[in-house]
Amino acid sequence: MRRLLSAALCLAATLTATGCGATVEQSTDAKKSSAVTLTNCGRKVTYDKVPERVVTNDVGITELMFALGLEDRMAGFAMPDDKGDLTHVPWKDGYEKVKWLSKDQLTKENVLDARADLVFAGWNYGFREDAGFTPDALKKLGIPSYILTESCHNARTKSSRGIMPPLDALYTDLTNLGRLFGVEKRAAALIAGFRQRIAAVRATAPKGADRPKVFLYDSGQDQPFTSGRYAAPDQIIGRAGGVNVMHDVADSWTTVGWESVVKRDPDVIVICDYGDVSAERKRKFLLSYAPLRNVSAVKHRRIFVLDYADLVESPRNPSAVARLGSYLRAVAG
Question: Which residues does the UniProt record annotate as the domain Fe/B12 periplasmic-binding (predicted)?
């Protein structure tokens, strides 16, 4: 099981309706009769009513709802069971209240069985053309959708994702959800707390030429799966005081070649910990993979582990910035 949030995230949790005794709006304040128009993935979308039976896909998306205290608006969530011990996160109450619909991705059957009136998912976070599970397909069933902003398709290719810096995507979704559910003050407080925490890390982070070069390793042996500039790790690395060596890749999560990793010679490798291959197995592979033997991070064994939920768009991102920031300060000396 993967390690989850430390007690340090309680600072963020105090800005939600869970865990640390905060006093915030109640989601029942939402105006049930008012239509709301939002900009989602560059398109204006109008929601005729406040959703009352939301279904979410994956851990980061689900915890965005929990962080806003919207458990009472949810009919269930889908996610694999490789997301670690969920009983010690600030949103533990949400996981206890809301039904776990599937240990795979959402399907039309899940959504219909749950009598969902909104599906909150993302491209490659539930929505997928090959399975016919798309916002357009759901619209034909009379079910509206909201697309995770980190996953929005961009104009570079049909499949590349990302239209804005990742933390801006996080703040955009929190703001939009706050408007849709009538909890704008709660969303604004959460965003303000996240910005404050990240600013505190940046104030002491390495600067200029001292900033370590960082490669994010998700998975893959023949070719590594990593983060371009539109996935959350790019700004997590940047705000922590590092430089994502794949920042020039105009995509979110994507595959690159090992030769590009070797050429860019990262000082640190961050492992994304999830799935059937443990972080330790990934670490052993990286340290033993011959083409990487002269890469600085491998030579000096500078490998840092963050959880999957830290590295996708989620309310855990600020904590990830803080923890990686501490490590990079030590590397920079």
Answer: 53-333
